[in-house]
Structure formats: structure tokens, C-alpha cells
Amino acid sequence: MSDKKRLVIFGSAEIAELAHFYFKHDSEHEIVAFTVDDAYVEGDTFNGLPIVPWSEAVTRFPPDQYGMHVALSYMKLNRLRQAKFEQAKAAGYSLASYICSRSATWPDLVMGENCFILENQTIQPTVKLGDNVMLWSGNHIGHGTHIGSHTYFASHIVVSGHCRIGERCFFGVNATLRDFLKVGDEAFIAMDASLTKDVEAGSVVLGAPATVFGPDDPKGRRIRNNYFGLDD
């Protein structure tokens, strides 16, 4: 019998396929199946493994014997991924995090459950990551920075030291943040944005130097809703 920890992946699309690859080739976990909500089951297998309706998952893969990893995208501004994270937790599953062995970290890194951290990160000392944080490849997370739960980073983002980032935020490719900044919950920091001052929850930040649309700005709300498929 394998000594690896057995894991079920929640999801059956691109992110789930990537999670399967990384966990398989660079972790102590063995992926044994996929699961999705019953209405989204298409076929019996995905990536060569069984795909199980959520209504059957707990019976076929009991939480005391199997872990889970929720592998969904940032759509709905990470709210869907948060909802499924909470659904799996409520069912009793431990949610495995993955951090690529080809990233630079320090022993004092604090990381929550269900994080997905890809290659070539530079994560400096005293960084804290909440639950369900996704960091795509090649980011710099400066010392003393805290990133809130359910937040998504694309690639090649530079966060300077001692920043405080809220929950369910989205950071696009090549965004940059000055040190000691505060970013509120559900902020959308777009590709190439250069942020030099604090932003409120729900803000949209575009360009360099940054144009900031506050949470009540109609244009900012349209941009945010259109990009993430929201109806706020």
C-alpha cells in the first residue's frame, strides 16, 4: 500500500487538471478521484480517474480516510471557490495545501488550508497566507506581508514588505504594490497596475500610475462585474 496521503480534488476543469499534475509530481499526496456538484458531472472519469457526484463523495471517500483540495478559478471574484471550500469543510474534509518545491520560502511561513502556490515564488520571512490563497508562478511576496483568505494572484506580481491584503481580492499579471499598503476585501487590482496608496474594499485599480475607482463608482462596478461575472 502507498504511504502517500489520499486526496480527492473538487473540480473538473483547467484548474483541477493542473492541481492533479502538481500534486502528482511534487507532493506527498495521491489523487484518487475528482468530485463536483451533481449537476456538473459529465461522464464517469476525468484525467483517467473517477469523477464522483458530490452527493456520493462522503460515502465513497470518507473524510476520516481522505483529504480534499478545491481546485476552482477566480470567477465570481473568488466567491465560488470560497463557497466550495466551506462546503468541503462542513462535510468534514481536511483541505490540503500545495506549495511547489521550486519556490523559495522560509520556515516561518504561515499558510492556511487549500492554498495552491506554484513555482518560482519568492516568499520572504514572516509572511502569512490565509485559507484558499492561490499564487500563480513567479511572484514576489515581501517580508511581513499578510494575504487574506480566498485571494488570487496571477503571475509576476511584486508585493513590497508589510502589506495587508484583504479577502477575495484579485491581482492581475505584473501588478506592483508599494510597501506598507492596505488593500480592502474584494479589490480588483488589474494587470500592470502600480499601486502606491491604500485602497478601500471593493475598489478597482487600473494602470500605472494607478487610476482607482472606489467601491461606489459606477464605472468601477461595471468593470468588476463584467470581468468576474458578478451582478452586484
Automatic annotation (TrEMBL):
<dbReference type="InterPro" id="IPR020019">
    <property type="entry name" value="AcTrfase_PglD-like"/>
</dbReference>
<dbReference type="InterPro" id="IPR011004">
    <property type="entry name" value="Trimer_LpxA-like_sf"/>
</dbReference>
<comment type="similarity">
    <text>Belongs to the transferase hexapeptide repeat family.</text>
</comment>
<dbReference type="InterPro" id="IPR050179">
    <property type="entry name" value="Trans_hexapeptide_repeat"/>
</dbReference>
<protein>
    <submittedName>
        <fullName>Acetyltransferase</fullName>
    </submittedName>
</protein>
